[in-house]
Design brief:
alpha+beta
Length: about 130
């Protein structure tokens, strides 16, 4: 899992895909960290992405860094514990201009049942499950 987090951090921007009524939706994300042994991302409870994940928690993430690409399939589960929101903002203080721990809109999503592949044109794919 640490390899996946390092990849996402190296990529800086990664892309999260959801599905709604059979239509895929992809958008850029940039914050990830490990909290309580789970890879977590964050969003806003008022955004469509959050509503789509509530209806269907199956997501995919893709990104590129250092001549390689990542494909991650997972389930995203809302973790509303205050200590999780604190940990996310501590890991990404640049987001404190948009969110605060108790604003009611900051949503941390823990990724579970995950399979990631880190691929390149020259190496065998590295598969990571968590």
């Amino acid at each position: 899992m640490e390899n996946v987090l390092q990849f996402l951090n190296d990529a800086k921007t990664f892309y999260l895909a959801t599905s709604e009524d059979g239509q895929p939706h992809v958008r850029p994300f940039g914050a990830a960290c490990i909290i309580d042994g789970k890879l977590c991302i964050m969003t806003n409870t008022q955004k469509n992405v959050f509503k789509q994940i509530q209806k269907n928690p199956k997501i995919e993430i893709s990104g590129m860094a250092n001549g390689k690409w990542l494909r991650l399939q997972a389930e995203a589960n809302f973790d509303d514990r205050r200590e999780v929101r604190v940990a996310m903002l501590e890991a990404h203080p640049e987001l404190s201009n948009m969110y605060s721990v108790d604003d009611g809109i900051m949503a941390v999503l823990a990724l579970t049942n995950a399979t990631a592949q880190i691929c390149s044109f020259t190496d065998e794919p590295e598969t990571i499950k968590f």
